[in-house]
Recover the amino acids of this structure.
């Protein structure tokens, strides 16, 4: 009898061969003949009943993956001019995949609503996980839009709230759904894509309320990105029925001073730590570090209503005014939160490190703890710096100083390991009680933050190593090294700044850190940091271990935040299974679906990142809306064929300088070099250049910020030879004598030299 494939083998083959999915095709692919076909039929039936496959006529397909050839529907261009598409045959349980359309020069122009047949490739980027290439255009279908309804005598119009959308929609008097003027609505296309007036018609299908209400900004992003923000009644009922865990079957850690250290506004506390000197004479100068994490798996069991809802959400989403949690508050804010002075179930790891910070051993326990104190980063740092308060004073010698001593050893180990060391300051939007932006502040980065970060990284490594050693399936946190084309672009940027990135050898984070160190203190420092960040791939979750490039670690899994990340809950269940702690570990169904679960929660993570970014953009636009005409310093953070993006120093907001505002000349866009070059003046505008800009527009509803460049690198922006109002640009040589004026010839020569240089660089890379 032929050997039957495993269920994951079948799913992988179906995903890779979407046109050959009949039972006969599958049997042929795996060499299954005779009576073995009956067993294959049974396997396919099981996969169908478990929800892995759906049967269509006589073929099967995996609903949680997009096939390599799919039908897509085009969306409107985003603020960067990128075209994203919606898969029309997505049947998975998780968040719908994000697909970026990558056009070729010969492709026809595509518009919103166009349907295409495309070939897909899986990628791991910050804002998408598939890239599509056109096979052929096959039609168009209705689109949906979210916007502000403006009522008039003939019905009204909808003003889209998407930053990249500038097209209004007409709503007939019989299609308003009772919406009021100024109300936020969801509508769908009605009739052809455009009328004789050039605007499409829409029919309102849902009224979403007043967009000007306090704290409505995050609600817009939540709705736009499809983030579930209400728990079903049966999920809440299940959460409310849970009772606190007892000591039975657990290690008693209640006398250990495991303290939580979190931001001052934290509502849940899912990690606690403790450190002490190691009294083993064989480990002189070493430390024992304990990290205890809330035992969420005890309350959220596989296949339960809570589990299904948590998996659907994938993670918690954080906004300036609210948190959309992965778990109901009964768990996230109560039973699974390591509150001060109350017993709480946990999974803890005891790690022994030597004086140089190298981990010598570790072991996990399932325990019951009671934290003596819930501390903030600021008060822990102040206590260590000599200013303890009533709460931290008694803990300074027995708890806080040993924590920093252990951190000192881990810090030394980190410096030897050389993880990627980017300097990108984080900003925080601060709101009043009414939901109005009061300030945009830099987030202070203390040693107390770094201490917790290093402890959590070490615990994550220990979790991955334990599950590998015990041969228990898990989800790794994967961060692959940068692709060759992005590295070459980073090298070009470094060369232009007079710096060097090593090549001709296996790239390590140490090489990137040297580049960042060489740039530190120079005008190009921010440019190099931004360019390095953009060269990175997006981290994701996978049952296959490809290592974590950014952290310079081979074995890494998320273990420390199961309240807010489903990935960590999977790792907790793996530890329960590996140690035989109970029947609430990994289920067989979860083990078989780990790849799909990893893909899904990677998607929900991207969804949350995009929603959080959109929300911050809208809040920043609201903050700046009463400062139209004001001047700001900034740095060019992006170049596109339609304009220049500038990051403002004061707030970190990104604004757009449309190309029509750059001057009276045509600008050549060089995608490879990431520059715009003036045809008349020869001026080159590129990433990282310092600018002074004037704020021309700020739209809180869309988050769009419009700018005008006043100075480039401390000099006035030179103007081209055109006259009158600036336009989007003219073709060089369109007026005057053949070949244009001398400055145009010089610009042409510069472009030719740059093109030759890039060609030589590519040829050398090919020879290598």
């Amino acid at each position: 009898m032929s050997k039957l494939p495993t269920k994951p083998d079948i799913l992988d083959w179906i995903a890779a061969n979407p046109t050959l999915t009949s039972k006969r095709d599958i049997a042929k692919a795996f060499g299954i003949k005779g009576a073995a076909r009956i067993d294959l039929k049974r396997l396919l039936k099981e996969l169908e009943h478990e929800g892995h496959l759906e049967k269509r006529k006589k073929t099967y397909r995996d609903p949680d993956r997009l096939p390599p050839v799919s039908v897509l529907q085009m969306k409107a261009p985003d603020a960067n001019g990128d075209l994203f598409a919606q898969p029309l045959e997505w049947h998975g349980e998780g968040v719908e995949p994000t697909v970026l359309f990558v056009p070729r020069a010969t492709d026809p122009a595509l518009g919103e609503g166009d349907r295409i047949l495309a070939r897909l490739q899986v990628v791991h980027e910050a804002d998408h996980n598939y890239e599509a290439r056109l096979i052929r255009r096959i039609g168009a279908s209705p689109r949906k839009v979210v916007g502000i309804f403006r009522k008039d005598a003939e019905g009204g119009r909808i003003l889209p709230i998407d930053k990249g959308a500038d097209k209004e929609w007409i709503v007939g008097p019989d299609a308003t759904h009772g919406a009021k003027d100024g109300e936020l609505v969801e509508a769908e296309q009605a009739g052809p894509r455009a009328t004789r007036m050039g605007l499409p018609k829409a029919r309102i299908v849902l009224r979403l309320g007043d967009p000007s209400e306090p704290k409505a900004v995050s609600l817009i992003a939540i709705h736009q990105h499809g983030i579930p923000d209400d728990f079903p009644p049966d999920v809440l009922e299940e959460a409310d029925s849970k009772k606190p865990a007892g000591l039975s079957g657990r290690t008693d850690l209640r006398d250990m001073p495991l303290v939580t250290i979190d931001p001052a506004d934290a509502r849940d506390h899912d990690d606690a730590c403790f450190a002490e000197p190691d009294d083993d004479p064989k480990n002189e100068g070493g430390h024992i570090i304990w990290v205890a994490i809330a035992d969420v798996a005890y309350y959220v069991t596989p296949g339960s209503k809570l589990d299904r809802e948590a998996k659907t959400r994938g993670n918690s989403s954080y906004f300036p005014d609210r948190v959309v949690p992965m778990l109901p508050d009964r768990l996230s804010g109560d039973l699974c939160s390591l509150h001060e002075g109350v017993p709480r179930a946990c999974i803890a790891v005891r790690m022994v490190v030597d004086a140089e910070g190298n981990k010598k051993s570790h072991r996990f326990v399932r325990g019951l703890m009671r934290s003596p104190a819930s501390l903030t980063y600021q008060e822990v740092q102040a206590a260590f710096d000599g200013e303890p308060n009533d709460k931290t004073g008694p803990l300074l010698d027995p708890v806080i100083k040993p924590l920093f001593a252990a951190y000192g050893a881990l810090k030394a180990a980190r410096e030897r390991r050389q993880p990627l060391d980017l300097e990108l300051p984080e900003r925080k939007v601060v709101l009043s009680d009414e939901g109005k932006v009061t300030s945009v502040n830099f987030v202070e980065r203390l040693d107390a933050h770094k201490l917790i970060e290093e402890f959590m990284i070490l615990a994550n490594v220990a979790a991955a190593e334990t599950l590998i050693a015990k041969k228990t399936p898990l989800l790794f946190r994967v961060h692959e090294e940068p692709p060759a084309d992005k590295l070459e672009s980073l090298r070009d940027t470094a060369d232009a700044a007079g710096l060097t990135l090593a090549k001709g050898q296996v790239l390590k984070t140490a090489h990137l850190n040297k580049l960042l160190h060489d740039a530190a203190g120079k005008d190009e420092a921010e440019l190099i940091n931004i360019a390095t960040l953009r060269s990175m791939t997006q981290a994701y979750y996978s049952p296959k271990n490809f290592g974590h490039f950014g952290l310079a670690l081979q074995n890494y899994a998320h273990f420390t935040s199961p309240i807010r990340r489903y990935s960590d809950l999977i790792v907790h269940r793996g530890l329960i299974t590996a140690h035989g702690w109970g029947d609430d570990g990994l289920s067989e169904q979860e083990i078989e679906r780990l790849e799909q679960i990893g893909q899904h929660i990677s998607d929900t993570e991207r969804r949350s990142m995009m929603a959080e970014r959109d929300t911050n953009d809208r809040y920043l636009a609201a903050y700046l809306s009463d400062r139209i005409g004001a001047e700001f310093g900034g740095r060019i953070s992006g170049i596109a064929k339609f304009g220049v993006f500038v990051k403002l120093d004061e707030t970190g907001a990104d604004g757009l300088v449309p190309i029509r505002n750059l001057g009276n000349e045509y600008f050549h866009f060089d995608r490879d070099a990431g520059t715009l070059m003036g045809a008349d003046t020869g001026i080159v505008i590129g990433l990282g250049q310092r600018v002074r800009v004037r704020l021309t527009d700020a739209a809180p509803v869309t988050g769009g910020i419009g700018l005008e460049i006043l100075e480039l690198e401390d000099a006035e922006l030179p103007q081209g030879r055109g006259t009158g109002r600036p336009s989007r640009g003219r073709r060089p040589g369109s007026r005057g004598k053949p070949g244009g004026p001398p400055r145009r010839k010089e610009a042409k020569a510069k472009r030719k030299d740059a093109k030759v240089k890039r060609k030589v660089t590519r040829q050398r890379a090919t020879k290598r």
Observations:
- Residues 723-745, 755-768 have pLDDT under 50 and may be disordered.
